[in-house]
Amino acid sequence: MKMTEEDNAVGPPVTEEDVRLLIKRKDDIEEQIKAYDDMLRTQAGVGMDAPLVDVEGFPRADVDLYKVRTARHNISCLQNDHKSIMVEIEEALHKLHATARVKPEKDETKMEVTEPAVSLSAPFALVDTVTQGSPAFQAGLRVGDEIIELGSVNTQNFRNLRDIASVVQHSEGKSLRVGLLRSGQEMHLNLTPKQWSGRGLLGCNLVPLQR
């Protein structure tokens, strides 16, 4: 009876395959965003914010205005879709972990495998985006990874994302140990914050997990 009540509390059961499908949809959206972004780079590098008129107020002649406006519009729409899918992924991951806790007998072997992750407490941040070619991408981080350790930051001392930003800024060019959960398994990666062609020193975005 207890298991039935808890199952009802966490909603319909979520499988790892459900999460993988959501992440696949997220990857497709990111690929589309990247394609439009690459196109904007070919238009005199206008990006999302550069003005489309010259200093005299006339339309710029060095860019295809229709292509740029269309790409910017599509990127904005896709970014909204991306935010929505990330919410779905986070909710699905929470449900998946809740289901694992409700069924300890079936997951007994898996729990033994992931015991080191449990000992480090619950993850405190979720990888929201990873830009291709970035330091985070090269280190092996994936969207949907749940961070349990990043350098000196862990669940016990994490307060907000500024803690991570501080560690990253003070570790430029130095390897940071990253502990994470992926599909219920604990993994460790080495990530070196550094300057690259994109924004920031990592090339990924993290969102805090509400616990």
Automatic annotation (TrEMBL):
Q: Which residues form the signal peptide?
A: none
The answer on whether this UniProt entry bears the keyword Chaperone reads yes
Give a short account of what the protein does.
Acts as a chaperone during the assembly of the 26S proteasome, specifically of the base subcomplex of the PA700/19S regulatory complex (RC). During the base subcomplex assembly is part of an intermediate PSMD9:PSMC6:PSMC3 module, also known as modulator trimer complex; PSMD9 is released during the further base assembly process.
Q: What is this protein called?
A: 26S proteasome non-ATPase regulatory subunit 9
| Family (UniProt) | Belongs to the proteasome subunit p27 family.
**Domain called PDZ: residue spans:** 83-184
Its GO biological process annotations read: proteasome regulatory particle assembly
Give UniProt keywords alphabetically.
Answer: Chaperone
Q: Which GO terms describe its cellular component?
A: cytoplasm; nucleus
The reply on keyword Transmembrane helix is: no
Query: What organism does the record attribute this protein to?
Result: Cyprinus carpio
- List, alphabetically, the InterPro entries matched: Nas2_N, PDZ, PDZ_6, PDZ_sf, PSMD9
Q: How does it assemble?
A: Interacts with PSMC3. Part of a transient complex (modulator) containing PSMD9, PSMC6 and PSMC3 formed during the assembly of the 26S proteasome.
Please give the Pfam families that the UniProt record associates with this protein: Nas2_N, PDZ_6
